[in-house]
Amino acid sequence: MHIADGVIAAPVIAGATIVSVVGLGLGLRALTPERIPVVAVLSATFFVASLIHITLGPSSVHLIFNGLVGVLLGWAAFPAMFVGLLLQSVLFGFGGVTVLGVNLFNIALPGLMCGLAARPVIARFGPSGAAAAGAVAGAAAVGLTAMLVALSLGLSGREFIPAAKLTVLAHLPVMAIEGAVTAAAVLLIKRVRPDMLASSRPVRATAPVS
Amino acid sequence: MAHHESLLHREFAPPSRLTASVGLFSDRDPRVRLAVALAACVAAVALQSLTALLVALVLAIAALVAARPDWRTVGRRLLALEGFMAMIIVMLPFTVPPAGDVILFRLGPLTASEEGLHQAVTILLKTNIVVLLLTAMIGGLEATAFGRALATLGLPGRMVTLLLLTVRYLDVLQRDYAQLRRAMRVRGFRARVDRHSLRSIGYLVGMLLVRSFDRSERILNAMRCRGFDGTFRHDALTPPDRGDAMLGALTGLAIGACVWVELAVA
After folding, report:
1. Which of A2, A34, A45 to mutate against chain B (most B CBs within 10 Å)?
2. A100 CA to chain B: closest CA distance, Å?
3. Closest CA to B86 of B38, B120, B135
4. Per residue in B149-178, pLDDT tens?
5. How far is B98 from chain A (nearest CA, A)?
6. Which fold has domain A10-196?
7. Tens digit of pLDDT for each residue in B206-242?
8. How many separate domains does chain B show?
9. Which of A25, A110, B178, B253 could, after both became Cys, cross-link A141 (CB 3.0–4.6 A)?
């Protein structure tokens, strides 16, 4: 899902990086001091959860959870996923340094959009309605990310178009899996701790610092 | 499965395991290490000629040897990278149209072009050089040092705090996850692709999130009573010394050499 260095053309990198920086700036405004701990702990949770691999035929897929991140964190999804990608690329040395902006754009933007769209529905309806909205958000976020990855490849050169098509195809089963898992996660949270999903505003631990 | 689950533990081993404390970069200022690593990575990705990229590869390997890394970690990282890149590398020779009529070889209905092979090798070299450089120059950098270096390079304070807290709780949550996973395993759970498995994994993730949410309230309360306002305070960093200046100069020379080769070949 994430792209390595040396593949994407410079204009694509520039465009996506600019949008990502704007997204980070807006996300930073949502990251008030009293929300930093909850965003940090949840982004660490998503990092750990993305190491869950599900065996699928001869290969295995790992979950991305960008839709669920968007649902729980709202605009803070941008800084949270930036931290995740930064840790992955720089501290663990997986690469993707020069395309950090592209990867953030491809993963965080769909997550944020699906999260903002699904959150009011999840807050308003009962557990089963919330689970359905979660399923749609989880699947759509992965689908949109696959399309954006394909778009970044396709815009970088005609020769990447077959690889771009293959990326979208390969993510169809991931969409289904991600949708099912996100639905179950939302269902559990809605039953056990509905206040995490309650207001139209994303989660915040207790009252603000006075 | 176990392989992926223990990833965090391995990567968060004490820094001394990743690169020995006797390496070229270990005693250098974190800000300088991060700056030279970024400069070198950007330069490597910008190179176009194969000759220049080969020079860059040799220099990156030299840097890695000088850093005295844990070679098993290096091998694991490179293997993961190669697997990750395989699809695009294998496809490229067949999807780039040949410039003339020259066809490199045929594979059934597919024809491979020299241009495509050239591009595939270029991309493979760039991705590998970046991973080698990162491992050599900032592999084993402690998270706190990394965060402070990012702050001096202009990352906002609240973002740095978010990064440091995330790193701090990765290990805690890894254990939380392992505990829930163990509880599922003793009840006979095996991950397959069916409704029951996916729902169980979803509940697992949901439960992790609920526990994390509760944990974050305790963290916030603990931090509040210590006067937390969004950023952590540190002692001032000591200014870069002569060794750091030498490292900067050395990296500049190496980048200059690659660029010179690039221009000379063109």
Report:
1. A45
2. 12
3. B120
4. 999 888 999 999 999 999 989 989 999 999
5. 11
6. Arp2/3 complex 21 kDa subunit ARPC3 (1.10.1760)
7. 999 999 999 999 999 999 898 888 778 777 778 888 9
8. 2
9. A110
